[in-house]
């Protein structure tokens, strides 16, 4: 298959969808890979490394789209890319169609095949191509929190781990899923006293078994949250209710009960945030202060660490990219249900219910579309 790797053109996106080692894996199966010049630079990979792995470097994005049967990307295509997409071209990337009608309509109009990372789903309902980014954001959260707890950054001026003779900071984590677990590990490793709250008692039991002694678990409810925020130095929001907006576990009035300089990192901001006063911020301007409480609400945290994020993402995506390249999209989706669940838009038809529901469009049975395409 002819595979194209364009450079991401979305603002501040430094990740890349294939590393040089990914290229050499694909070459083993005889595939042809065109890489846009400087596509990997933001993540630390030079054109010469891609060439050494067997890719051909093309100077312009248009040439990559023109040559490729499959485009592998990180972020959804943006307006300047729409016209480059060819009928029947396969795009394998994050789309998040439910958040953009314009993108949905553009992909329908281009009659492309859109295989979305975010809906590739295992039988146990886990989302293997979303987990790596939650792991990155989870591990970043205490790091960012520690930074903004410093006095010059408007925080309380407390060191997460304390020192001999001085108590460590209290870290409260709301949600003990992927983000919450990774955040707890890092915060505990830095020596903080950590409390993880979740509504899932089974999950709290598992966490209690595996976490070190400086991590407590507690049932998440309004009473416990109100009590915990009074002495928390750092609060990390990490809840998710799949397919729904995050619940506001910390409401506006609760800020007054916190100590000045408390820091809140709401990782769940991409789902609306679990802190009422949260609104999305960027890496250029990551925080704002309300009632002397520092809010960090960056919606694309992994973007700040593109080297780690690219490797984490491609570790997870490459096995699927290889399957699709080897079998073609139809063969791969018929062979692997996980990939079939990733199909969102196929040759002008919406085949993913969530996307159709979001924009009041007709949903076509994915099996019908696959059968017709054979
Ligand atoms: N900002 C970013 O850059 C970034 C990056 C990655 C992920 N995220 C977001 O982080 C959030 C968490 O993702 P995840 O992968 O950890 O999800 P997950 O499904 O693994 O975990 C969510 C947890 O929240 C718990 N929960 C639900 N309601 C709760 C409540 N009322 N109180 C306490 N816990 C509750 C669930 O039981 C579950 O354990 C998501 O919104 C995700 O989109 C943001």
From TrEMBL:
Active site: 96 (proton donor/acceptor), 270 (proton donor/acceptor)
Keyword Oxidoreductase in record: yes
Alanine dehydrogenase/pyridine nucleotide transhydrogenase NAD(H)-binding domain location: 149-297
Catalytic activity: L-alanine + NAD(+) + H2O = pyruvate + NH4(+) + NADH + H(+)
Gene Ontology terms describing biological process: L-alanine catabolic process
Keyword Calcium among record annotations: no
UniProt-recorded name of the protein: Alanine dehydrogenase
Taxonomic lineage: Bacteria, Pseudomonadati, Bacteroidota, Cytophagia, Cytophagales
